[in-house]
């Protein structure tokens, strides 16, 4: 995770975010460090980033601007929107009031723990 200013375009953080993906173990052999595909919305529709993803061996699945809705990415986008809605359940995270990013990240981690705890309680 990386924290940037609110006036920063998300697409500028795409490649640094991919570089921070941890190794995924489980299958025999060398742990994977990159995904097979990257699913993104229209905000990431730039030829430059599509090209850079292909150079890294990642298949870009990005909704195109100017094309009618119905690309099928909404099924996956729901997971992101639902997660953001859960985090917005904590008023302090809706708007970043803290000046220090470490405090904001601590509240974000605490909210994640509380959300997980609530879901585990429902399962038990």
TrEMBL record:
Domain Transposase IS4-like: 2-64, 77-114
Any Pfam family matching the protein: DDE_Tnp_1
Domain of life: Bacteria
UniProt cross-references to InterPro entries, sorted A to Z: Transposase_11
The name this protein goes by in its record: Transposase IS4-like domain-containing protein
């Amino acid at each position: 995770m990386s924290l940037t200013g609110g006036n920063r375009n998300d697409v500028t953080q795409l490649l640094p975010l991919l570089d921070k993906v941890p190794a995924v173990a489980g299958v025999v052999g060398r742990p994977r460090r990159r995904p097979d595909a990257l699913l993104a919305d229209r905000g990431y529709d730039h030829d430059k980033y599509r090209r850079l993803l292909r150079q890294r061996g990642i298949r870009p699945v990005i909704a195109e601007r100017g094309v009618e809705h119905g690309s099928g990415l909404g099924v996956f986008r729901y997971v992101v929107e639902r997660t953001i809605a859960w985090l917005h359940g904590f008023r302090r995270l809706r708007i970043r009031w803290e000046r220090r990013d470490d405090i904001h990240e601590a509240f974000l981690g605490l909210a994640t723990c509380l959300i997980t705890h609530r879901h585990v309680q429902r399962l038990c």
